[in-house]
Design a protein that fits this description.
heterodimer, A: alpha/beta, FAD/NAD(P)-binding domain, Rossmann fold, five-stranded parallel sheet, 27 helices, 52 strands, globular, B: alpha/beta, Arc Repressor Mutant, subunit A, 2 domains, four-stranded parallel sheet, two-stranded antiparallel ribbon, 6 strands, 52% helix
């Protein structure tokens, strides 16, 4: 009753409101990758989002990066499809070049005042044609290229910018002294408006998400390592731009002083990070080790004869696949990683080379390098202080956003959340999972408003082209220099014109830029194209974008084919330009041949079962389940053990001093008592059937087998502790794992507290041949236990034997604290591991640990009363069976493999199945929490919908040809095909809803009666024939 | 710089979308280099590769055919289509051998979406192999039209092969070992010969006769078969009323069509 009344009131209110009264559900402040992801998730879950960005385009720091570690994906290529998605999403109101001014109200009813800066360009009028840019006489350093090249005072921020409109920089001659207004004259659309003033806009929203990201540490004020003084000392962000094909020299690495290729490059780690000196940051910036390795690998690829020296402290390859990435960089010829502090000496006035002094076993050496790259750290965003004042949120001691350790996405003020690097230094996937997680939390706050302000996207009606001859349009993308520099793009375009059915051919710099995508749909309409081939990159990332472009043009999206001339051609044949051009022509010809025979297909709407199933009842599973249940979704939580809690049952305190047991007990209570969570313990999953939106999972418990229907699943099965076989573990009571030591400390175990000397050995059971990865949590675990022991018994001697201390992020402070409390750190090499020996001497029994101390240069013997082994975190047994049942992959180390290392960190490639917690990779509790909220957020985007769309590329049977042999039925384990009675007898029939489009039946059918649409025999024959046409 | 006359093989590659195509993408992303011989056709599953695709590619003078799928057990689809790809390729290799195409020109590999480097290794290795074999027919020492005639005969029999495969070549359990064992078993060879190879040989002999060959010897030479085998088949064909043996000459009996 009451709800109905409320609804009515809201409806009336809405009717009274004008269309443009700036009412939204959530405001996301900061349009980097984290803000974009949050806006996309929230808008997909039925909320209206305001996305506010201070610079002229969304994209953030990620858009400036050349590649991303550890896969070396092209950063812009994977990010820009999200720009277009943002642009096309009707529930995202994008406000660029806009600052936040003030805030009033509280959760559910915030009023944000924004300050829209003058672009001096009317956004709605600008077409992005860039004629004004051509004519503008004023050259200014290009901020997108780190001021390493020049741009015009009026320009588009970068080629793929969204919105793709120009803006006029304050250095404009008109704005300075009114001496020029040529842009106004040449603009055919009258889009230039010098009278624009900063404009205040008020927006009402229910919740706010702060994603302002970070700044790179600026070495200029302190003149670190000669930056700003010596031309050939650049920051790593400068170097990203130098590497990039859209950078200042189109991907040629040219050093600033003389624009020559440097052949000898030095990288210096930890610039501005891990420092307690004034002007530096005490924390570790988390990402620099891996990005430096990336830059080394890429630079070596650009300059095969490059010699490189990388001066580092600990190498912190703590993330998934980082260790292998490090090894890849290390193995490169003429690349040397050197563990040494350095100082920059001088600049050779003749050559511009810069000298670096570093220590070697033989003493200090001074060496000249042609280019020096400073691996600068991450600093809080410039606006952090102002944000704190405007939004009334607290910052931490480092100037980043202060968050609740048990909910890292919550700021100190209710209704205001944060994700991304504003929380502290982190990499892209963490920013993305945090975005989805913060979205889930904001969504909880606003759950009663879901769907009220949002609207569906409307496409033009689809044109019937069945009676037309194929009219193929071919769009050849240069992808900046990625394609254009290797193959002859004009030649390919010219060749495409000669192909049968082709009526239009066009080249573009970036086919994926918003304006190009829009231009393509205009061209389709104007030229009456009914088939489209885009010769560019891989359909695995960009097909959805271009299919959408066809829909925008009113053409069935299955009339599209992608010719992959980048991943499969220019990137793999970069040194054989002629052959690569020939191959690219062949690929285009195959694609055109295929396009000619494509058929229009209908997609299916499948109902979504609004129930979730979460596998694994640890902190990850419980958090996800609770988040979903709180938003009204029935959730089944399946746990193998007889109680919830998982690994957290064995944790007592965090590095930051939080009480884990109280937290877990509270969480368990909330979960057990929640009316919408059905926790099933002592349970095993025996079978999984179905597909996105409609799964049926069989769960076996003692004496009962049941099948649960659900629309989405989250895999949160966690990880387990490795059981050491080394260092006398299991043979002496004095040797224990770090986790066991934690329990003993928590229980105030007498034997342990009696110990006068404790040795911790790091990297036990990982970073070796068997497990080539870092378990991420053990270094912090050692600090945590060392500090705890010291606080209980200050006089205890603690030695930590380590390979690299990997206390990334703010955890570095605890490393320093341990060191200050006289915990001794002794580094060992993997080929000279510590030796342990149980000794009885002088009426005392102890463990003698011997290890070589590289600083003292001699072997040490430590007589320890207790030895703690940092045992690896390893995948949960049974992961592979579960992976098989859910049709999701495991990575090389046995952890579950997400859909994309950077941008889909909690999704699987298989739709409807998500991932969180240590099942994905070892991680800290706070990271697990973030990821669990993230997985729940992704599930919400699915379960909030009534239907999901299933591909039209499914099978169908031509009755006439079916001989009722049943070959198709026996091969299809989806049960999508069955016999039905027809006037012509028993015939096979496909249930399109169940068909997954693998096409096995097509390959088995002896009479060709069953056909997989979009991959028909005819279409494949055309491709084969076209490929071999010239032979 | 390559000489213009340098032999550049063409390999048709059928890659499954989920694993091998992803591996090829990652290979590109990682800039691992391999020779520019491959022409990729993307399919959703390696099990979609029809025998006819393979024969057609060779008939159109492809120098090699590559099929790339997910590792066994990791197929994206429930029915584990990569096992079907495995079975299919084992059948295809034997048929290719019979019609005179070196079966090494067909290769099946499992490459996951994370194995960019492996994709490059496979392509480098297979590329070198095909290059060393030379253009189709050269290493075989056979005329191209003869190979094409054999492939045409094989293509005609694809519907029949599919029926035989379904009825008689059911492998259980579906494991890699199961497949290798099944196809290497003692009783498989005669069964395969009877059900597949004999039919194919008959088809090829009929083809040769129709194109004007007359004596068993000539037919045998043209098809690269043992004359005694050809004589045996001709005898069978005459019993079936397909051929008339007339004074040492075999004459196909025209069938009204």
């Amino acid at each position: 009753m009451e709800f109905g009344l409320l609804q009515q009131q809201m409806d009336t209110q809405r009717a009274l409101r004008g269309a443009d009264d700036n009412m939204g559900d959530i405001m996301v402040v900061g349009g980097g990758i984290s803000g974009i992801q949050a806006a996309l998730d929230l808008s997909a879950s039925g909320y209206k989002v305001y996305l506010v960005e201070k610079s002229p385009t969304i994209g953030g720091k990620m858009s400036q990066l050349d590649k991303t570690f550890p896969t070396n994906d092209c950063s812009m290529c994977i990010e820009s499809p999200k720009f277009i998605e943002t642009d096309r999403q009707p529930n995202i109101e994008l406000m660029t070049y806009t600052d936040v001014d003030s805030l009033e109200g509280g959760p559910g009813e915030f009023t944000v005042t924004l300050l829209k800066k003058p672009r001096y360009v009317i956004e709605d009028k600008c077409t992005g044609c860039t004629v004004c840019v051509e004519y503008c006489p004023a050259k200014i350093p290009d901020p997108f290229n780190q001021n390493l090249s020049l741009n015009k005072a009026v320009h588009i921020y970068f080629s793929q910018a969204v919105p793709l409109v120009t803006y006029i920089d304050e250095t404009c001659l008109f704005l300075k002294d009114k001496t020029c207004s040529i842009c106004q004259t040449v603009c055919e659309n009258d889009a230039i408006d010098f009278n624009q003033k900063a404009e205040k806009v008020q927006v009402k929203v229910g919740a706010i998400l702060l994603t302002p990201g970070y700044e790179t540490f600026d070495p200029r004020p302190r003149n670190d390592y000669g930056y700003g003084q010596f031309a050939n000392v650049v920051t790593s962000m400068d170097f990203e731009r130098l590497l990039c094909s859209t950078g200042p020299h189109e991907g040629q690495i040219l050093r600033p002083s003389d624009k020559k290729h440097p052949h000898k490059i030095a990288w210096i780690h930890c610039v501005g990070s891990r420092q307690v000196t004034p002007g530096g940051n005490s924390y570790c910036s988390s990402v620099c080790c891996s990005y430096t390795q990336k830059q080394v690998i890429l630079a070596k690829d650009h300059l095969p004869d490059m010699q490189a020296k990388i001066f580092h402290n600990d190498i912190r390859s703590y993330g998934k696949d980082f260790e292998r990435f490090y090894q890849r960089a290390q193995k490169l010829p003429d690349v040397h990683f050197i563990r040494s502090y350095v100082s920059v000496g001088s600049e050779d006035p003749e050559t511009g080379d810069v000298s670096i002094r570093y220590t070697t076993p033989d003493g200090v050496v001074e060496e000249f390098f042609e280019l020096v790259v400073l691996s600068v750290g991450l600093a809080p965003p410039k606006d952090a202080q102002r944000f704190s004042e405007v939004f009334g949120i607290e910052l931490n001691q480092h100037g980043f956003c202060k968050v609740d350790p048990f909910n890292p996405l919550q700021t100190s003020r209710p209704g205001i959340f944060t994700s991304g690097a504003f929380q502290g230094p982190m990499d892209i996937p963490e920013s993305v999972m945090g975005a989805s997680g913060a979205g889930a939390q904001a969504s909880y706050l606003l759950k009663s408003r879901r769907g009220q302000l949002s609207e569906e996207r409307v496409y033009p009606e689809e044109k019937d082209v069945s009676q037309e001859e194929p009219k193929v349009g071919v769009f050849v993308c240069r992808c900046g220099a990625n394609i254009g520099r290797v193959v002859d793009v004009p030649g390919i375009a010219e060749y495409a014109k000669s192909l049968p059915g082709v009526v239009h051919v066009e080249e573009s710099l970036f086919a994926c830029a918003t304006n190009t995508a829009k231009a393509i749909s205009d061209t389709i309409r104007d030229k009456g194209l009914n088939r489209v081939v885009v010769a560019a990159c891989t359909p695995r990332t960009h097909e959805p974008l271009f299919r959408d472009t066809l829909r925008e043009a009113g053409v069935n999206q299955y009339f599209f084919d992608m010719a992959n001339i980048r991943e499969h051609c220019t990137w793999v044949h970069s040194k054989e330009q002629e052959a690569a051009t020939q191959k690219a022509k062949d690929i285009v010809r195959m694609s055109v041949a295929r396009a000619g025979s494509l058929e229009p297909l209908e997609e299916f709407s499948l109902p979504v079962d609004k129930t979730a199933l979460v596998v694994g009842g640890g902190v990850a599973g419980m958090t996800s389940a609770h988040t979903l249940a709180e938003q009204g979704y029935e959730t089944y939580l399946i746990e193998r053990a007889s109680d919830l809690g998982g690994m957290a049952n064995r944790l007592h305190y965090t590095l930051e001093g939080m009480d884990v047991q109280t937290f877990v007990k509270d969480l368990k209570k909330k979960v057990y008592r929640h009316p919408r969570i059905h926790a099933i313990t002592d349970a095993a999953i025996t079978h999984v059937d179905g597909y996105v939106g409609n799964f049926a999972t069989t769960v076996k418990t003692k004496g009962r087998v049941r099948t649960i229907k659900h629309g989405a699943a989250i895999i949160a099965v966690g990880a387990v502790e490795y059981r050491p076989t080394e260092y006398l573990y299991g043979q002496s009571d004095r040797v224990m794992t770090l986790l066991e030591m934690e329990s003993k400390i928590a229980q105030r175990d007498e034997a342990l507290l009696a110990a006068d000397s404790v040795v911790m050995i790091q990297c036990v059971g990982c970073r070796n041949e068997d497990r080539n990865y870092c378990a991420r949590v053990c270094c912090s675990g050692a600090m945590k236990n060392a500090l705890k022991l010291k606080s209980i018994k200050p006089e205890v001697d603690i030695y930590v034997l380590f390979r690299d201390i990997r206390t990334y992020g703010f955890r570095e402070d605890y490393y320093r604290a341990a060191s200050n409390q006289d915990v001794k750190f002794i580094r060992y090499e993997p080929d000279d591991k510590p030796q342990v020996e149980a000794v009885e001497a002088g009426g005392r029994s102890f463990i003698r640990v011997s290890a070589f101390d590289p600083i003292l240069g001699k072997k040490l013997e430590l007589d320890a009363d207790a030895v703690a082994l940092a045992a690896a975190v390893i995948p949960t047994p049974g992961s592979s069976e579960l992976a098989r049942m859910f049709k999701v992959p495991l990575g090389p180390d046995g952890f579950f493999q997400e859909a994309h290392a950077k941008l889909r960190p909690v999704d699987f490639a298989a739709e409807g199945v998500y991932l969180c917690g240590t099942a994905q990779y070892p991680k800290h509790l706070s990271e697990t929490l973030t990821q669990s909220y993230g997985a729940a957020g992704r599930v919400l985007t699915l379960l909030s919908r009534d239907t999901v769309v299933a591909s039209g590329a499914v099978c169908e049977v031509a009755d006439v040809d079916c001989v009722s042999c049943g070959a198709c039925i026996s091969v299809c384990t989806y049960g999508a095909i069955e016999f039905v009675d027809t006037p012509r007898g028993k015939k096979a029939k496909v249930n399109a809803v169940l068909c997954k489009g693998d096409g096995l039946c097509n390959a088995k059918c002896p009479t060709g009666a069953i056909t997989l649409s979009h991959y028909t025999d005819g279409e494949v024959f055309n491709q084969i024939d076209a490929a071999l046409e010239l032979l | 710089m390559a000489a213009p006359s340098e032999y550049k093989p063409v390999i048709i590659g059928f890659l499954c979308n989920w694993c091998c195509y992803g591996g090829a993408d990652l290979c590109g992303v990682s800039r691992f280099q391999y020779p520019p011989y491959l022409r990729v056709i993307r399919l959703m599953c390696s099990g979609r590769v029809d025998l006819e695709f393979i024969f057609r590619a060779f008939a159109k003078k492809a120098d090699g055919v590559f099929i790339g799928g997910c590792h066994l057990g990791d197929c994206h689809y429930n029915p584990e289509g990569n096992y079907d790809a495995l079975g299919n390729s084992l059948v295809a290799k034997r048929i290719l051998e019979n019609v005179g195409v070196n079966p090494e020109r067909l290769r099946l590999e499992w490459v996951s979406a994370g194995e960019g480097i492996r994709f490059a290794e496979v392509m480098n290795d297979f590329g070198a192999k095909i290059k060393s074999l030379g253009p189709l027919g050269s290493s075989e020492g056979r005329e191209l039209p003869d190979l094409q005639a054999g492939l045409a005969a094989a293509t005609q029999l694809v519907p029949y092969f599919k029926l035989v495969e379904r009825e008689r070549f059911r492998v259980s359990p579906r494991t890699e070992e199961g497949y290798q064992k099944f196809f290497a078993a003692d009783d498989f060879e005669p069964l395969f010969k009877e059900l597949v190879i004999d039919k194919l040989t008959m088809g090829r002999i009929m083809g040769a006769l129709r194109s004007g060959e007359e004596s068993a010897e000539a037919v045998a030479q043209k098809l690269g078969l043992d004359p005694a085998e050809v004589a045996r088949q001709l005898h069978l064909l005459s019993q079936q009323g397909m051929v008339r043996i007339d004074g040492g000459q075999a004459v196909p009996i025209a069938v009204a069509a």
